[in-house]
Amino acid sequence: MIRFDIITIFPKIFDSYFKESLINKAIKKKLIKVEIHNLRDFTSDRRKTVDDRPFGGGFGMVMKIEPIYKAIKSIPKRKKRKVILFTPRGKKFTQKIAYQLSKLNQIIFICGRYEGVDERVAKYLADMELSIGDYDLMGGELPAMVVIEVVARLIPGVLGKKEFLRERTALTKGKKEKGFIEYPQYTRPAVFSPKKGVEWKVPKVLLSGDHKRIQEWRKKHQKIIE
User: Fold this and answer.
1) Is residue 157 domain-resident?
2) Binning pLDDT at 50, 70 and 90, where does residue 164 land?
3) Is the distance from CB of 56 to CB of 112 less than 8 angstroms?
4) pLDDT of residue 176
5) Please, what's the largest Cα pairwise distance for the chain?
6) Is residue 108 domain-shared with residue 170, that is, in the same domain?
7) Within a domain: 69
């Protein structure tokens, strides 16, 4: 079981997300565990301050290292653990990284806000800096949800059928996971008419019942997402 620990100043953002769909089922089945930590609980002043003005001047505020350090130290440590800081400067999150993370026992996510996080967090506390895309978000909460969903679906039992995960996994010659196989999917009706004279049809091969030809068609049209 992987334990996901999320350090954030907006813990309620995750309420509805983790109460829905397969993620909620995985939590109930104890395939994964998710713990939310309110960063303001680790401050020492009356105002529960988590940010301050940047040294050297500039606009905006920077998240302080002290409460983040205390939050990480308060979390029970498991073997095979990584601490991840979300930042636009981080390594691009990929399916390959997701496979690597799925082998861990614990992942701690630091969700930044404001104009950034004290650089000493990246330098001394985080094991990895991640970005989910070439754009700037308001915080790390959405990236945390994305990474948890991508990693969780790789855990046996989360998707329900093990065959589904095996069928969609691209392997290297050494039988190591290298990516996710995606191909076009269709369902009923075989012919859909949005208006008179227009027909959107399912490829005939998928209706043939010829499994060999269907597999060949899927392989021809597949894309490996690494």
Assistant:
1) no
2) low
3) no
4) 77
5) 70
6) no
7) yes
In this predicted model, what pLDDT tens digit does every residue of 52-99 receive, in sequence order? 999 998 889 999 999 999 999 999 999 999 999 999 999 999 999 999
Torsion angle of C-alpha atoms 152, 155, 161, 166, degrees rounded to 10: 110
- Strands 177-182 and 191-192, bridge-based pairing: unpaired
In this structure, how many other beta carbons lie within 10 angstroms of the beta carbon of residue 89?
10
The residue from 118, 133, 152 where one domain ends is 152
pLDDT digits (tens, 9 = 90+) for 150-163: 999 999 999 876 66
Query: Stretch 139-157: mean pLDDT, rounded?
Result: 96
Confidence (pTM): 0.89
What is the model's pLDDT at position 180? 81
Our separate counts of H helices and E strands in the chain read 7, 12
Query: Which contiguous run of DSSP H or E holds residue 105?
Result: none
Alpha-carbon gap, residue 133 to 142, rounded angstroms: 12
Find all residues with CB under 8 Å of 110, minimum gap 6, and list them: 7, 68, 72, 83, 84, 85, 86, 117, 121, 125, 126, 140
* Bond from prior residue into 189 cis (ω within 30 degrees of 0): yes
Shared domain for 119 and 202, answered yes or no, is no
Contact criterion met (CB below 8 Å) for 123 and 70: no
Res 75: pLDDT: 98
Q: Which domain holds residue 213?
A: 162-225
Q: Does residue 77 sit in helix, strand or coil? A: coil
